From TrEMBL:
<protein>
    <recommendedName>
        <fullName>Tyrosinase copper-binding domain-containing protein</fullName>
    </recommendedName>
</protein>
<dbReference type="InterPro" id="IPR002227">
    <property type="entry name" value="Tyrosinase_Cu-bd"/>
</dbReference>
<dbReference type="GO" id="GO:0046872">
    <property type="term" value="F:metal ion binding"/>
</dbReference>
<dbReference type="GO" id="GO:0016491">
    <property type="term" value="F:oxidoreductase activity"/>
</dbReference>
<dbReference type="InterPro" id="IPR050316">
    <property type="entry name" value="Tyrosinase/Hemocyanin"/>
</dbReference>
<dbReference type="InterPro" id="IPR008922">
    <property type="entry name" value="Di-copper_centre_dom_sf"/>
</dbReference>
<dbReference type="Pfam" id="PF00264">
    <property type="entry name" value="Tyrosinase"/>
</dbReference>
<keyword id="KW-0186">Copper</keyword>
<feature type="domain" description="Tyrosinase copper-binding">
    <location>
        <begin position="230"/>
        <end position="241"/>
    </location>
</feature>
<keyword id="KW-0479">Metal-binding</keyword>
């Protein structure tokens, strides 16, 4: 590996680090972020993070430290962008709010992944480019368009060589939200399962929404080895990091533990054995490595990457709280439905409006000076919350508990996606499952199959009428070959 110049340290004059959704990020800051990514590609720094993600020795995926490993990884990437020069010194990662984008899709405000997601178009979209037979890290993407819009036009897999100057991307204008795994209802069930230990949470989030996202966006993003080449990757993992932060706020922070107690609390960290050989503990260093002259080398030891991770806590137990990382502490500005998870935890989406949710949890909300939650005011979100409330009322009338109601809502949304919206649920191909070490199938497809086969029918009486009232389509299967029209 070519040894690149050591970057200057970040400026200490920045305001508190707050990550926002792409939509909530001012246009000038969006432009600054994209320019920083392009410059990082030009200097070869961006590719170093692709190498780090590919060289994990099993820690980054399918392990108890999936969430925490990626937390330090994207924090280092953000620090790298800040090191590029004075004008980039305060740049922050935007997060990809696909929960809100799913809602827009559900209400028919947009029809494809790209038309629903300003973050994707802001990073160059999927339409400008050409087919390329040039392999990437030994993998062929010849049937995908290699997008050459800015900043992908600066992509370079091997700095100093004949660069591709493009990134293989899926046909996002013809790709649909074929899975409800990226939606509010599904993510709530993942976040607030009865088993709230960190190991179980990490595995649930990795399987869904994480894996579903990579599968849906396809091309480079669906390939474990090169996924981090696409800057969309970092916005996605900022969203995954938010889910871990929400879990911390709901399950650990109310316990008011000391820092030392928090390190060992099972809601923050649970150890495991990786590859049957490596024991990972709270005191274990976060295993970020990259090949230097063919030798796996810690980012804390390599001269180029060391400044980006300087003063970032070394161990897993020390990075469990994003607001307690010293000079590298950061918060999230949470908008839309995503914010209701943080403000109301298990009871998110269980009141008639978002404002009622905030009022019901007012004391905790006012005492929380960490992450920022913005009120939900848009009509579509309020309509969605009203639908959830009416389903909940019906579920309770039938003697179902609130967890059962959440399960039934997920089934109801799956039916709307399958029978009222473009696209259809599909199973993972075997090569994708092998690369990402997935044992089961695509979760929404499995849920849909259960409903259609009668193995796990929807238990809410009058569910089709409730869907029709709020979404303009019942979701009932009338004819397998014809989508039900919205009225």
């Amino acid at each position: 590996m070519q040894r690149l110049p050591v970057p200057p340290p970040p400026s200490p004059l920045c305001p508190p680090r707050i990550r926002r959704s792409w939509e909530a990020t001012p246009t000038k800051d969006q432009d600054l972020f994209v320019q920083a990514v392009a410059l990082a590609m030009d200097r070869g720094f961006h590719q170093l993070f692709v190498d780090i993600h590919a060289e994990t020795l099993g820690e980054a995926h399918d392990s108890c430290v999936f969430l925490l490993w990626h937390r330090k990884f994207i924090l280092g990437y953000e620090n790298m962008l800040r090191s590029l020069g004075r004008r980039f010194a305060c740049v922050t990662l935007p997060y990809f709010d696909y929960i809100q984008h799913n809602l827009n899709y559900l209400h028919g405000k947009c029809t494809s992944l790209e038309s629903c997601s300003p973050f994707l178009t802001g990073l160059g979209g999927s339409t400008s480019g050409h087919l390329s037979s040039q392999p990437l890290a030994g993998f062929a993407f010849s049937h995908f368009k290699c997008v050459d819009a800015f900043p992908a036009s600066h992509a370079c897999a091997v700095p100093g060589s004949d660069c591709m100057r493009c990134i293989p991307r899926g046909a996002w204008t013809r790709t649909y939200f074929n899975s409800t795994a990226l939606s509010f209802t599904s993510i709530k069930r993942v976040l607030f399962d009865a088993d709230d230990g960190m190991t179980a949470l990490s595995l649930r989030i990795e399987r869904s929404p994480h894996d579903v996202f990579h599968f849906t966006l396809s091309a480079a993003l669906a390939n474990f080895v090169v996924a981090a080449l696409d800057p969309v990757f970092y916005g996605h993992h900022a969203t995954i990091d938010i889910l871990a932060a929400i879990h911390h706020r709901c399950r650990v922070r109310p316990l008011k533990l000391t820092k030392e107690q928090a390190k060992l609390h099972p809601g923050n960290f649970q150890g495991c054995v990786i590859n049957n050989t490596m024991v990972v503990k709270a005191t274990s260093p976060v295993g970020l490595r990259l090949p230097v002259d063919g030798v796996p080398t810690s980012v804390d030891e390599y001269a180029v990457t060391r400044p980006w991770f300087q003063h970032v806590p070394l161990t897993y137990g020390d990075i469990v709280d994003t607001t307690n990382l010293g000079v590298h502490s950061y918060r999230y500005n949470l908008t839309g439905l995503l914010g209701t998870f943080y403000s109301h935890c298990d009871h998110a989406g269980m009141n008639h409006t978002a404002n009622m949710e905030l009022q019901a949890n007012l004391q905790d909300y006012e005492d929380d000076d960490q992450h920022v939650v913005m009120d939900v005011t848009d009509v579509d979100s309020l309509t969605f919350l009203a639908w959830r409330y009416d389903v909940l009322v019906q579920a309770r009338a039938q003697g179902l508990d609130d967890a059962d109601a959440d399960d039934e809502m997920d089934k109801m949304v799956v039916m709307v996606y399958e029978h009222c919206l473009p696209g259809t649920h599909s199973e993972y191909p075997e090569d994708f499952k092998a690369m990402w070490k997935i044992q089961g199938g695509e979760p929404s497809k499995a849920m849909l199959d259960g409903v259609l086969s009668g193995a796990t029918p929807i238990r809410i009486q009058g569910w089709a009428g409730l869907n029709q009232r709020y979404f303009g389509c019942s979701g009932e299967r009338i004819d397998n070959s014809i989508k039900t029209s919205r009225v």
